[in-house]
Amino acid sequence: MLAIRAGQMFDGERFTDGRVTVLLDDGRVHAVESGWPDLPDATQVIDHPDDTVLPGLIDTHAHLVCDSDENALLRIAGYSAAELDVVITEGLRRQLAAGVTTVRDLGDRGFSVLERRDRQRSGQTSAMEPTILAAGPPLTIPAGHCHYMGGEVAGRAEIAAAVDERADRGVDIVKVMASGGMGTPGSDALAPQFSLDDLQFLVDRAHSAGLPVTAHAHALAAVQIAVRAGVDGIEHCSCLSAKGVEVPEELLADLVARGIFVGGFIPMPTMDLTKAPPAIQEMLRRQGITPEQMYAIRLNWLGGLYRAGVRLVTGPDSGIGSLIPHGSVPNAIAFLLDAGASATDALAAATSVAATACGLGDRKGLLRQGFDADIVVSAGDLRETTGALGEPRCVVLDGAVVS
After folding, report:
1. Whole-number Cα distances in Å, 108 to 53, 66, 125, 274
2. How many helices (H) and strands (E) are present in the chain, helices listed first?
3. Is the Cβ–Cβ distance between 103 and 62 less than 8 Å?
4. How far apart are CA 333 and CA 389, in angstroms?
5. Which of 16, 56, 314, 356 could bond to 350 as cystine, CB 3.0-4.6 Å?
6. Pair 129, 140 in one domain
7. Shared domain check, 224 and 286
């Protein structure tokens, strides 16, 4: 049995006062006890009297085929299968080093991440890796955003065939590019890529197969279409229009009423926008917006979602470039805090709420008896500062301490 004794705990939903002991056995949380009780002699004890113990972090939006370097998205088409495997391995390593114990991949090339997930689930991977959830290549229009990942569809027959293939392969979720994106030349982030009827057909097809759907959507019109189509999640939810960022009150009300999870918000505080993709820099120039003004706009946008009660989760689009490398979930938590979220809500977005969004709420994201023993110990009291969250004192994965 392994015991972690800490000065305080965030259990995935709330902070507890005073010392706590978390007992782990056979890959599960055996018990959570107040104080530091006497333990059997055979117990391995890890002491962190000044630190906070919490559930392992969850990245709800990552691209493991991307290497966290410049133009990572555009370079994946040139990788061999062996090169992709190396990139995926390094991405998982960086995620785990930042305390991320579960990664939901929302767009790979040619089902390579899904294959890695299957190897992981069958015990064919030797290294310690975060639990993988995989969507396969995202569905997009011909030459649409991220078309080079292999998910192009045109018309109902191709949409149905693509959804059915993903169901047959056992994906965990279906990802659709409801709008264009700024990382694909020729793609329009201000315009929808699918009509309401086609997106509704896609969502209904996936739901009939028991699969949730999350939609990449930068354009306001695409967000509105995705909501009406009944998606389970929206990535980015940027609400961009020709006038800038617009978030109608009725849209906020719909997001809340339908319980749609919103993730994929890029952690702006850590970003040097002079290194952003050319499309983003061009948009800033065209609208006459400085990086500082963009940051203020994004803070106001995210704070508005938070205050309205939208279910926010921490998926920073990890890996797509040097501005958002794998292991960026702590930066997304910091962005939420800057937007006005409480420490409790910001950390829940990366643990219990994220686990629910990923369909894992019955076994991950909480320090509860019987839950998976995925645990992080972070320096200091996280009620006061989360600055050290990205450099954990200790990470436990499936009950084993990560070296």
Report:
1. 32, 8, 19, 27
2. 12, 17
3. yes
4. 9
5. 314
6. yes
7. yes
pTM over 0.90, yes/no: yes
CATH number for the domain that contains residue 113: 3.20.20.140
How far is the C-alpha of 45 from the C-alpha of 4, rounded, in Å?
Answer: 6
- Specify whether 284 is located in the same domain as 152: yes
- How far is the CA of 254 from the CAs of 26, 198, 224, 283, 365, in angstroms? 43, 20, 9, 28, 26
Q: Looking at the structure, tell me whether residues 37 and 147 fall in a common domain.
A: no
The domain total for the chain is: 2
> Are residues 200 and 118 part of one domain?
yes
Does residue 338 sit in the same domain as residue 349? yes
Residues 249, 288: Cα–Cα separation, whole Å:
26
Q: What is the CATH number of the domain that holds 39?
A: 2.30.40.10
pLDDT in tens, the chain (403 residues): 999 999 999 999 999 989 999 999 999 999 999 999 999 889 999 999 999 999 999 999 999 999 999 889 989 999 999 999 999 999 999 999 999 999 999 999 999 999 999 999 999 988 899 999 999 999 999 999 999 999 999 999 999 999 999 999 999 999 999 999 987 888 999 999 999 999 999 999 999 999 999 999 999 999 999 999 999 999 999 999 988 899 999 999 999 999 999 999 887 655 566 666 666 666 666 666 676 777 888 899 999 999 999 999 999 999 998 889 999 999 999 999 999 999 999 999 999 999 999 999 999 999 999 999 999 999 999 998 888 898 999 999 999 999 7
Looking at the DSSP assignment, which residues form a beta bridge with residue 8?
52
99 and 38 within one domain: no
For 143, the domain range is 57-357
156-169 helix and 196-208 helix, angle to the nearest 10 degrees? 30
